[in-house]
Specification:
Helix content is about 40%, strand content about 20%. It contains eight helices and seven strands. It has a domain of about 120 residues: Enolase-like, domain 1 (2-Layer Sandwich), CATH 3.30.390. The termini are far apart. Strands 3-4-5 form a three-stranded antiparallel sheet. Strands 1-2 form a two-stranded antiparallel sheet. α2 packs across α3 and α3 packs antiparallel against α7. With about 200 residues, it is of the alpha+beta class.
Length: about 200
């Protein structure tokens, strides 16, 4: 098997339950450690080495952590030998209760999670309410899949990966809620966070 065939098998076999709980958004999620714990045995099984590398990059006036997840075949004759994905996370200027090293570490964990998500095709799906201009989940699915109206009328669908800003009540996507859980003291949207930084009531 070449590296692409190995990656395809790992993606098909990999299961990473959302075992972490976010009390702010009342939802479950997975982190980078969960993904690594589930992926390592499959990488060994299919003859691959998984590595993650970080580096700081300066973009504009801010520093970002660049995380690169790389899957390498143990068969050194494979062409190509490896597959990589990259993700970025911006460091907060300050974070209550954290020193500079901890802020960088937190951004690294966030970037690593999304680099691994990309490599193994794991998604943190946003619910249909968020993606369809305020339509209900059921109505959005009816529009996307004509002919399902009767079945959906008898079905209750609960959004799984969405929460609300504790300041303004706006819906927040999964990625933002993950960020709040890892970096902030409460679950707030980007707009409310900026208002707080600027001292706007």
């Amino acid at each position: 098997m070449n590296i692409f065939e190995k990656l395809q098998k790992i993606q098909a076999e990999l299961e990473v339950p959302k075992g972490q709980f976010n009390k702010f958004g009342n939802y479950y999620y997975r982190n980078a450690e969960d993904i690594l714990a589930a992926a390592k045995p499959l990488c060994h099984k299919h003859g691959c080495l998984l590595t993650i590398m970080d580096r700081l990059v300066n973009i504009g006036d801010r520093y970002y952590v660049e995380a690169v997840a790389q899957l390498i075949s143990s068969n050194m004759t494979d062409e190509p030998l490896s597959v990589t994905t990259t993700a970025y996370a911006r460091e907060e200027e300050t974070k209550k209760g954290m020193d500079a090293a901890q802020i960088t570490g937190s951004a690294s964990s966030y970037a690593r999670k999304y680099a691994l998500n990309g490599l193994f095709c794991l998604d943190d799906v946003k619910d249909a309410d968020h993606m369809n201009n305020g339509k209900s989940t059921v109505d959005a699915i009816k529009e996307m899949f004509p002919g399902t109206e009767e079945m959906l009328d008898n079905l209750t669908i609960t959004p799984a990966d969405v929460g609300m800003c504790e300041e303004c009540g706006a819906n927040m996507p999964q990625a933002r809620i993950d960020y709040c859980n890892e970096h902030l003291d409460k679950c707030i949207c980007y707009e409310c966070q900026n208002k707080k930084k600027k001292g706007v009531a």
